[in-house]
């Protein structure tokens, strides 16, 4: 059974940091490129960051470049998103996504940034 389980969300003040985790099971995690998306109320789902299976290639949305870092630990089958210098506009539900031969989604973790 495929599972992606996000954790690490919460309430943080503007300028603060959070680290999101996404624990994967049930598929060949190390060969799947992984992505973080977010969706704020009333807005479209936005691609935040991507990482290749090896972790060598990483890309970011302009809105988070220089503040967020995507990483993965294939031995632990876990994806991470380190979020620094958080802004109120980062408030959203954050989802991890695996896109390879198949596509899988987690249930999301809420991040709320207060001013």
Describe this structure in words.
0% of the residues lie in helices and 53% in strands. With 115 residues, it is mostly beta strands. The strands form two sheets. Strands 2, 4, 5, 6, 9, 10 and 11 form a seven-stranded mixed β-sheet that branches. A hairpin with a 6-residue loop joins β4 (34-39) and β5. The termini are far apart. The mean pLDDT is 97.
How is this structure best summarized?
With 115 residues, this protein is mainly β.
Q: Which strand-content bin applies to the residues? A: over 45%
Structural class: mainly beta
Question: Would you tell me the overall average pLDDT?
Answer: 97
What oligomerization state is this entry in?
Answer: single chain
Q: How would a textbook summarize the main sheet?
A: 7 strands, mixed
SSE pattern: EEEEEEEEEEE
Give start-end ranges of low-pLDDT stretches: none
What is the molecular shape? globular
| Number of beta strands | 11
* Helix proportion range: under 10%
Radius of gyration equals 13 Å
Q: How many helices in DSSP terms?
A: 0
State the distance separating the first and last CA atoms: 40 Å
């Amino acid at each position: 059974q495929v599972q992606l389980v996000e954790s690490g969300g919460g309430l943080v003040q503007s300028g603060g940091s959070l680290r999101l985790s996404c624990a994967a099971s049930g598929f060949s995690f190390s060969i799947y490129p992984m992505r973080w998306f977010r969706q704020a109320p009333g807005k479209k789902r936005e691609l935040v960051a991507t990482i290749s299976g090896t972790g060598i290639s990483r890309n970011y949305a302009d809105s988070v470049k220089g503040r967020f870092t995507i990483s993965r630990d294939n031995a632990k089958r876990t994806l991470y998103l380190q979020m620094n210098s958080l802004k109120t506009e980062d408030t959203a539900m954050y989802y991890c996504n695996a896109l390879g031969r198949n596509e899988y989604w987690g249930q999301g973790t809420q991040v709320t940034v207060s001013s």
